[in-house]
Each structure stands twice: as C-alpha cells, then as structure tokens.
Amino acid sequence: MKTERMLTVIETHSSGETTKVVTRGFPKLVGNDMWEKTLYCQKHYDHLRKALMMQPRGFSGILGAIITEPTKPEADYGVIFMYTGGYFRSCGDSTFSVVKVLIEQGMIEPQEPFTEVTLDTAAGLVKAKAEIKNGNVGKISFQGPASFFQESTTVEVPGIGKLDVDIAFGGLYYGFVDPAQAGVQVAPENAKKLVEVGMKILEALNSQIKVKHPENPEAKEIELVTFSAPPENPSHHAKHANVYANTICVSPAGTSVSAKLATLYAKNKLGLNQDIIVESLVNPELVMIGKPAQEVQIGEYKGVIPELSAYAYIIGIEQCIIEPNDPIKYGFLLT
Fold first, then answer.
1. pLDDT band of 335, cuts 50, 70, 90
2. With 70 as the cut, is the pLDDT of residue 1 above it?
C-alpha cells in the first residue's frame, strides 16, 4: 500500500468534547512564536487539518491539537489548536487532553503526586498541573489567559427579537445568553435548534457589537455564543451549550468558563478563589471547575486570571493513513 502520509493520533475527550491529539507524522512547522506556526500550518498544511477534522475521519464539532516543538525554552511542547473550521489561539478542552496524552504516552515523565507541564500556545504559555496516582492521570488544572467582561447589552436578532447579552473574553470572545429568553432549552436532543438559534445570535452580535482586545488586535470578533442554563445537579452552578461555526461544543469549554468567571467577578457575584462548577451539555457528571485566581488589568478592563480543572480520557489510538489516490483524502463536511 502506497501512502502519502501517516499520522499518529491519540483520540481523547474532556468533559465529552473529542480532541484528536497528533503526536507523530505532522510536517515541521516554522515560526518565531506559536501564532506564526499556526499561520504557517494554515498556509502550507491546512489540507492535513481538513483530512483529520472532517469526514470520513472526523465530524462537525471535533477538536484537534498538533504537538510540535515549542518556541519558548521554558515550555515542554508547543501546541497548535484546530477544529473543523480552522484554528483557535486557545482551547481549554484540548489543553486538558494534551496534558493527559503527554503524560500517559510517556512524552512527559510522571511524578507523584503532581506533574507539571508547560505548553507553548498562540495565547501564551500555559502552565498545567496533573494529579498522578499509581501512574494514572487524574484531575488536570491550568491557568488560562487573562479574561475580562466587556459589557452587558441588548441585541436585535431577526426572527427572535431583543435579547440581553453579556460580552466577555476568556481566550476567545463570547456572548452569554439566557436560553429561556431565546426560546430554547439546553438539552442534547435540542442540539440542532441550539445551533440554529445560536448562529443567528452570533451573526447579530458581530453586526451590532464591536469588540477589540486591548492587547491582541487579532481578537476582534465574537466567536461563540454560550447558552448558560440552570444545572441538573443542584450543587453545580450552570450548564453550558456553546455554539460556533454551525456546530456545538458539548463540554462546558475552558474559554467559556473563563469568560463566565470574568463576568461574575466584574459583577461582584464571585470573589477570588471561589469555585463555580459547570456541567457538560451531555452529562451532568462531566464538569469543569473554574475560579478567578488573580485580579489583573487588561487595558481599560478589570479582569482575572482563571484557573480551570477537569478530567480527560483517552478513548483510542489511530494511525491515520492518507492514500494518494483517495478522492476524499482531504475530507469533506456535510452541513
């Protein structure tokens, strides 16, 4: 059998969200920092992203992470975050999965009771810590990028009407919406409706509201809508459904929880080092825990450094083969 390329992928999930972690076979990526490497990947090897993320190897809503050399000497590895539609600067779910893979695949030597891992990402250095017991990885924690609340506002959504929205940044820009006000229920069986309504809201947000990160000029668009609903478990604080790129994230999402923390902190509803527990869309036992670990100033905004904790699980190991004569070797996606 002739192959154009073979890629080793560790299949994982964190809080229900699937991440393909590419550990071998990806071409060398060039750049002075991880965002330059991301852009280099986009320019020269985007066909490989599509091959992994799209059908028949992937599906709408899947995440990916490419393990690469870091650009900063203090980092253990560099990571490129990707998804079906492109690339992310930051991704909490994939960060948990990458730490799990690096330790359990022997790429980082485990130390009990905790193993520290430093990742070089397009959003900056991420310092993670994993609980280790009998060689197994337990809860993983890391501090996310500086997050802040921008504003509470209203948006006019065609076919829905006026909605109250909180705009916040947690590594990506989010619009937080009450699902009851939007006429939807946060439940797995309503996924298609959530995506349909969420994308309408997202389009309206970006046409009516301007966002501009004080320190990162590339972050100038609201990328996701979070429907924040009451939890199923009364000891938890919320259940999230995050809509983006005509799909839905089934986990609470690290960037969403970070933005939520910043919002609650700015509104004096949450103090430093106070936890919130956010449920996955698909199962209330799959949760992400977040807390504002430190107050920071980001331009004109009072923000926080979020600390996030969750579990990740390895669900398979795959050798992805790209045959040169396969008509759909670089994938397709039905919408």
1. low
2. no
Residues 48 and 136 in one domain: yes
CA pair distance 242, 250, nearest whole angstrom: 7
Based on its alpha-carbon atoms, the radius of gyration of the chain, rounded to whole angstroms, reads 19
- DSSP assignment of 14-35: ETTEEEEEEEESPPP---SSHH
- Are 112 and 133 in contact by the 8 Å Cβ rule? The answer is yes
> Same domain for 318 and 303?
no
3-state secondary structure of 301: strand
Token match 């668009």: residue? 221
Contact 9, 317 (CB under 8 A): yes
CA 277 to centroid of chain Cα atoms: 17
Residue 308 has pLDDT above 80, yes or no: yes
Query: CA–CA separation, 25 vs 319, rounded Å?
Result: 10
What is the rounded distance in angstroms from the CA atom of residue 90 to the CA atom of residue 82? 9
At residue 334 the predicted structure's pLDDT band, cuts being 50, 70 and 90, is confident
Residues 6+ apart with CB under 8 A from 223: 172, 173, 174, 244
Domain that holds residue 99: 5-144+314-322
How far is 38 from 26, CA to CA, in rounded Å?
Answer: 13
**In Å, how far are 141, 145, 149, 271 from 274, measured between CA atoms?**
15, 18, 17, 6
Q: What is the distance between the alpha carbons of residues 153 and 131, in angstroms, rounded to a whole number? A: 40
Q: Which residues pair with 143 in a beta bridge?
A: 307
**139-163 per-position pLDDT tens digit:** 999 998 899 999 999 999 999 999 9
Split at pLDDT 50, 70, 90, the class of 3 is confident
Both 154 and 299 in one domain: the answer is yes
| CATH number of the domain where residue 194 is located | 3.10.310.10
List the one residue out of 144, 132, 89 whose CA is nearest residue 108.
132
**Site of tokens 């080793």:** 8
